Amino acid sequence: MGISTKINSSKAKATLPLRLSPSSISVFKQCRRQYKFLYVDKLGDQYRKAKPFFTMANHIHATLKDFFAITPVELRTPETIICLLEKNWRRYQVGFRNAEDEKRWQEKALRQLSDFVRNTDVTVEPLTTEWSFETRVTPGVVLNGRIDRIDRQGDDTLHIIDYKTGNMPQKMEWTQVRLNALAAVQNLHLPVSKVSYLYLNSCTFATCDMLPEDIQEINWDLLQIAQAVGKEKRYLPSAGKWCSGCDFRSLCPGSPEVVPSFSEEQLELWEDGSDRVDDISE
């Protein structure tokens, strides 16, 4: 390789935009060392372990996508969604301790989806489901991710819905769906009037109304976090309750020696990866 080729290659690398997602931003805010392991050093494939709640969430998201594709809507029954889940579950079963553990997680998924059909309006026709996006916010910042569901309201505004398979947290964090709203507005050119998390464990909607001017605020917040990510050099670890589920504890100098053991009831502490494009297999 000649000198000029090396220089051009270096310039191209230097001008690559910073790629962020709601998930990576959440990790950066929670622990910058974990962000470095995942998104700078790219150690996820080497150290990330399969987890049962990720597998369950993956199959639930795929099943809901298939479910809303069914017409006529009269066929959207509890029996139908159970059949779809069983079909999707056969794709892979990873992260479980044994057959009994797998059965427990599958029964949890079946219960959530059956309750969803019985307790929500399943006759709606979403504008899109499991929609992957990539949005160039500025020449130097790209936002990518996936939106579980977008409904088009009667007034031609959008309702962004994100499914959560864990428990509803005591304090709501709206960053993920707000960033999804920004992507939807920029790509679909329609205003977003509300964003929601749907907690399938209790069939509960947590909804936040949105005004057109909120998009400018979200855009500004994203640029602020992008600036912080771009300037970060030290990536200091932040020890906390999330350390118990971190795949990089063996590498991390800030990992506490004793951390609380994980329990199923703590699922609100975990991101389910729903905005990661590589998390849901077709």
Tell me what you see in this structure.
It is built from 9 helices and 6 strands. Among the domains are: 75 residues; 102 residues, Lambda Exonuclease, Chain A (Alpha-Beta Complex). Strands 1, 2, 3, 4, 5 and 6 form a 6-stranded mixed sheet that branches. The relative contact order is 0.17. By secondary structure, it is α/β, with parallel strands linked by helices. The C terminus is likely disordered. The chain is 41% helix and 17% strand. A hairpin with a 4-residue loop joins strand 5 and strand 6.
What labels would you give this structure?
alpha/beta, Lambda Exonuclease, Chain A, 6-stranded mixed beta sheet, 9 helices, 6 strands
Write the layout of secondary structure elements.
Elements: H1 3-14, E1 18-20, H2 22-30, H3 32-40, H4 44-47, H5 52-68, H6 78-89, H7 99-119, E2 128-138, E3 141-152, E4 158-164, H8 175-188, E5 192-199, E6 204-209, H9 214-231
Parallel strand pairs: 1-3, 4-5
Antiparallel strand pairs: 2-3, 3-4, 5-6
Helix pairs in contact: 2-3, 5-6, 5-7, 6-7, 8-9
